[in-house]
Here is the input.
Amino acid sequence: MSSRLVILPTYNEAESIAALVNRIFKYIADIEILVVDGGSRDGTVEIAKEIEKHQPRLHLLDEGKKSGLGKAYLTGFAWGLARNYSTIIEMDADLSHRVRDLAKILEVENADLVIGSRWIPGGEIENWSRLRELLSLSANKYVQLMLRLDISDATSGLRAYRADLLRRLDLGSIKSEGYVFQIEMTQAARRLGSRIVEAPIIFRERELGKSKISKAIVLEAMLRVTYWGFKRIGGGGGI
Here is the structure.
């Protein structure tokens, strides 16, 4: 068994899943992939099953229903921890994260959590409108203002956790679903005094399929960050 596991949460990613899986296995050594599917109806599961037949380093968990990004990752964490992987990685399944940047974050040493950051020197975003860039940057500035995480890209979905850190976290207390899940996990890691390192990445707007970001996901993030921030200010310690 490889020592590193990439979790790919999928929901209707038939257009990208095979290309991404093949690229990871081609360019990254000593790695396995867990696809956690949330009820895809476009053939994603069937494609993953076909690859799984011929590639023992690919594993599939077919959840059968859409349960949210947070639950998908928590399911993947539990699966990976039970099998004693040393490093567990989060990565989008829509090709917005480059495999070369996956390799970059895996090269970082002496860190409990490595976050692929768009908002530090060397980080970039490709094919976003200026308005969308400003919204994402403003969201991260708001997180920093409210939570004092000292992280430039707390919403990034490309990150690598040491298994030891995940075991120390109270994963049962993590309740967020959308991209605010990443903020909650970052806050939880910070509260444990973990060493968190950001590495610059180039994030590309997906070329295939549809974005899963919705108004409800944005609202969840805004409300939760505001609540945690006021709780921190009031002496409740944040999350």
Summary: DSSP finds eight helices and nine strands in the chain. The domain at 4-233 is CATH 3.90.550.10 (Spore Coat Polysaccharide Biosynthesis Protein SpsA; Chain A). Helices lie at 17-27, 44-54, 69-82, 99-106, 130-147, 163-168, 180-191, 215-233. The chain has one domain: 4-233.
